[in-house]
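Hey, can you fold this one?
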Amino acid sequence: MANYYSDIPELKFHLNNPMMERICELKERGYRDKNEFDYAPQDYADAIDSYDKVLEITGEITAETIAANAEGVDEEGPHCANGRVEYASGTKQNLDTMVKAGLNGMTMPRRFGGLNFPITPYTMCAEIVAAADAGFGNIWSLQDCIETLYEFGNEDQHSRFIPRICAGETMSMDLTEPDAGSDLQSVMLKATYDEANNCWRLNGVKRFITNGDADLHLVLARSEEGTRDGRGLSMFIYDKRDGGVNVRRIENKLGIHGSPTCELVYKNARAELCGDRKLGLIKYVMALMNGARLGIAAQSVGLSQAAYNEGLAYAKERKQFGKTIINFPAVYDMLSIMKAKLDAGRALLYQTSRYVDIYKALDDIARERKFTPEERKEQKTYAKLADSFTPLAKGMNSEYANQNAYDCIQIHGGSGFMMEYACQRIYRDARITSIYEGTTQLQTVAAIRYVTNGSYLASIRDFEQAAWSPELEPLKARLVAMADKFEAATAKVKETQNQELLDFVARRLMEMAADIIMAHLLLQDASRAPELFGKSAHVYLNFAESEVEKHAGFINRFNAEELENYK
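Sure. Predicted structure:
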């Protein structure tokens, strides 16, 4: 019987990464919950076994229910009537099955009814679900908005809202407006304090809100009269039970049909402040978006896996000119690069999630006691790594998902253009990943400072010190040469002191850094598990080397005068 977890041995490999021991120790606080909760792990081995079992359950449900419903959900989609959303029938079944399996509030503490999972195994669950139905993945994985409420809400809000999410209620984050897309400083949804009822009131319109009729919403709104920038924005919690928000319409989208993308009208809706006033955008939304970007990276890897699966299966069956098409170089070239991008992107995703796990667990510990000097240093190190790697994970994996989906259709030929093949749904679903939760261009904006301040290069030089298997060690010189080219290209651009030129070549510099980092991570994985990653490591190194050479050549030939030709 199919299982979307156990059928992908690469996932279990990443679950057993050596960094997980430190992550579990921090997340479980020395496994103190074992005395209070009978399902809490006794030690590290028990914790990993627990994650493995839950991933197995998630993989089984995904295969038996979510994948089986995917085409029907894509065709039916959600409905809007009388200001409310009704999910497709398959979506309702998916949600019911996930709730009954206890797969909600996964990262929340056990005292609220959660599983107290680290981000990494939860992210694996998100990848698994997205491989079957990316649209449903949006609905289910928005439970991770509760991380922001847990991080910045007060104890009373924790006790009232977190158990509801752990019990299966849904969430949304209401940020975008008709005139405020990527530029969230322009948000104008108005928040006014109602003295008589001791609450806030929200008025205005939100647009492109994923799962917009959810039970609980985190809402970015303008609380400071007369302001027009990010300093006038605060974060609010809106509870659907209180009423005051209606769905004006569900957007008619290219893909992710199962996920209702809504336009919402707030009419004097009752809400409560989350955290402090004026920090909604500059602190809370940044934390919310980083979590969402990791989620889209996971969704992208799931879609890449789905595209590779479909392309590989078709190539093994389809015959032309007397033999199966997988035997043609033009086809196995595409498939090998698809697999290499999938393995490299997944390596980056889980390296990033492990960085996030360590700094978030330490942040949580800081609520209980003061850090030791060693812990303070560790928290600072991993917070910076998480912040720098997140835009790479989201940006590169979303682009790879689109490329793999494109190649999947190409392998299918004319059949790929027909609606009865799953590859067309994967292709349509993948397209949004490089747009929402920050376009690839915005991921470049987030990443470029880590290019110019040397952070990526420092990580790469650290990776160069890693021990590889003797078979792979000779390849290290090629990666060192790639890093030298990246360093030289960065220096050339910085020396011009031309901000416009830096902005123009920023994506090329970001991709150079990401290509080298992913090559390192994949070669490290291949050293530990050559049977899983050996071929992909060689293929990806060839691919990354050519990409770095291409970008370096462009930058070395380019100058400010040439920039005028592009305007």
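The first strand starts at residue 79 and ends at 81. Let me know if you want another pass with a different chain boundary.
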